[in-house]
Every structure is written in C-alpha cells, then in structure tokens.
UniProtKB/TrEMBL annotation:
The keyword Amino-acid biosynthesis applies. Pathway: Amino-acid biosynthesis; L-leucine biosynthesis; L-leucine from 3-methyl-2-oxobutanoate: step 3/4. Keywords: Amino-acid biosynthesis, Branched-chain amino acid biosynthesis, Cytoplasm, Leucine biosynthesis, Magnesium, Manganese, Metal-binding, NAD, Oxidoreductase. It holds the Pfam family Iso_dh. InterPro entries: ICDH/IPMDH, IsoCit/isopropylmalate_DH_CS, IsoPropMal-DH-like_dom, LeuB_actb. It is found in: Cytoplasm. This is 3-isopropylmalate dehydrogenase. Its EC number is 1.1.1.85. PROSITE patterns: IDH_IMDH. Gene3D superfamilies: Isopropylmalate Dehydrogenase. Mg(2+) binds at D219, D243, D247. It catalyses: (2R,3S)-3-isopropylmalate + NAD(+) = 4-methyl-2-oxopentanoate + CO2 + NADH. The record marks Y135, K186 as: Important for catalysis.
Amino acid sequence: MSTSINLAVIPGDGIGQEVVAQGLKVLTAVLPQDVKLETREYDLGAQRWHRTGETLPDAELEALKHHDAILLGAIGDPSVPSGVLERGLLLKLRFAFDHFINLRPSKLFPNTATPLAGRPDIDFVVVREGTEGPYTGNGGSLRTGTPAEVATEVSVNTAYGVERVVRDAFERAASRPRKKLTLVHKNNVLVYAGHMWKNIFDKVGQEYPQVTTDYLHVDAATIFFVTQPERFDVIVTDNLFGDILTDLAAAVTGGIGLAASGNINPTGAFPSMFEPVHGSAPDIAGTGKADPTATILSVALLLRHLGYEEQAVRIEEAVSADLAERDGTFRSTDAIGDALAARVAG
Ligand code: ATP
Ligand code: MG
C-alpha cells in the first residue's frame, strides 16, 4: 500500500462528469490524512472528438500509463457514430493496458427494488475475460451490402488468456467466505473454445482444493440468475457471455445506478480502470437525477485494488447503511455524494 495515490480521472460525457465529481468527493473523504491524493483530469470523449477528431492520442495513452489507477465516468453520445469511441477509446485502452479482468460485483442492497420475488440474498461477483473472445476485432465482411454478404466475427481464445483469467477467479473465490466458483460457457455447442475453458478450469482447480467448483451453460445460467441467484459466489466467463450476464445481474440487483466495475490488470504492469457500468445517459444529464452510487462503489473497487481494503469496506458499508435508511424521497446526485462522503469520514 502506497502513501500516495496518483489518479487519472476521465469524467467523459453526459452524467459521467456529474458522477465522477461525487466519486472524488467520497475518495477524498475516506482517505487517511497522510495519504496524498494527486489527480490529473483527461479531456476525452464525445466533445473532444467533435472538437479535434481525436479519440485517444498516443501522447495521452502514454501519460495515462504513469498513474496508479484510472477513474472513468462514462464515454459516449448519440452524436458520435456508433463504434468510434468504443473502439477508438475504450477498447484501445483495454488492449493497451491489457485489462484482462473485467470485474463486476453484484449485491442486492437494502431497500433496493428487485424484480425478483422474496428478496433472495444476492452477493456474487462476475469475473469476465476482457481481451479475447469475439472482442478482438478478428473477422470481416465479404460482398458487403449485397444480398450475398457474408460476415464473420471470430472468437479468439488462447490458453494463456483463459488460464490467467481462470486463475484470477480462483484466487478471488479462495479469498471469499463461501469459496465457490462457477464456470459459465456453452461447451455443448462452442466445443473448441468451451472444452479448452473447461479443461483449463479443471486443471487450475486442482491447485485450489478449498474452492468448490461448478459448471453451467450460459443459457442455464440466465435462468438461475433469476430463479436462484443466491447459488452464485464467483463466476468466471468469456467476454461476450460476461457482458450479457452482468447486465442481467445489474437488473436483478436494483439497476444500473448501483452497478460498479473494474477493468483490471492484476499484474500491476499498467494502471487498472474503474467505472460505473452505466453509460452517459444524455436523457438525464444536467438534471441532477444521476445516481452516483455506482461510481462511488467503483471507487471502493479502486481502493481495494490499490491495497486500501479498510477504506473500500468503509465505502461499501456506507452505501449499505445509506440505502437502509433512505425514506424513498428524491435525492440529487450531489446530495447522495454528500451523504456518503459524510458517512465515510465519520
Ligand atoms: P451506453 O451505450 O453508454 O451503455 P446506454 O444508452 O446503454 O449507454 P445508459 O447511459 O447506460 O444507456 O443509461 C440508460 C438509461 O438508464 C439512461 O437513459 C438513464 O435514464 C438511466 N441511467 C443510467 N445511469 C443512471 C444513473 N447513474 N442514475 C440514474 N439513472 C441512470
Ligand atoms: Mg448500455
């Protein structure tokens, strides 16, 4: 654990700006006096692209490398063609910094609306592979735009890539009280990749006899997310399955305003990046309606990653207590940030 944190901040677009301000407020409040927090803000996102045509210039990519971690608000705006910022900024960062773990905890907090009957006890974390699967841009289109068009999108799975994410998931499972890890894939149909995932999972599992393991096809997993979410502790899965499952997980645990995530390189070779799962929500930008809790919980993940476990827990407990006591009246973005900052400082 360092005695200073050199943080890169990318507020981004729409409500990204608003929620990041609250995240920083809580971060400042929770850190011990003797930890020096330095921040540098990066102007990246839709406005920058409109102004200069740039998404993530190499000079900024280089500068970002020298931070301990990155806090991101949200990137994206309907005025920018789909894919420009995703590929030119978000995926570029993920590949450049080799963020092979996409971490998404799912917890049902008190007083949070869930569409599930009987308020099951939901507290699991999805470890999604971040750099492979169908996300590598490997594919193409033949006879584009004609009735005879053929498009391919190749799912890339390397033993190296699968083993490192599976190992990380076993480590996380071993450190949690329930010590249970579920592999989710579709190895009855995607046999080449699916069998490799399962074989590697079984092999690495031999080193973790204390961890109980399970395997589910992704279609069955979607059913259990809704009917028996309490059966999950840690889930490890492929990039695309993880994308879909974690949105489902956010929906059953009270929605997008509470869902936090980390794009992590556990080796520490590059800074990891923490962000709320939601997007820039242009429909509510500037109205004070954005819930900053997801960003504040992302700050907790950031602190845990940097070794500030006690401060991370303090933020999570503050969110829990704050939600337990809330009486349902509307609170602005700022008011939620203030309430949580006061709780973690106290
Ligand atoms: P993206 O493509 O960037 O994921 P999106 O179009 O999927 O964006 P989001 O920006 O994630 O959409 O938001 C979807 C809707 O959920 C928004 O229009 C907004 O009404 C609501 N929403 C998102 N984030 C929040 C938040 N933090 N607090 C309250 N409501 C939110
Ligand atoms: Mg979205």
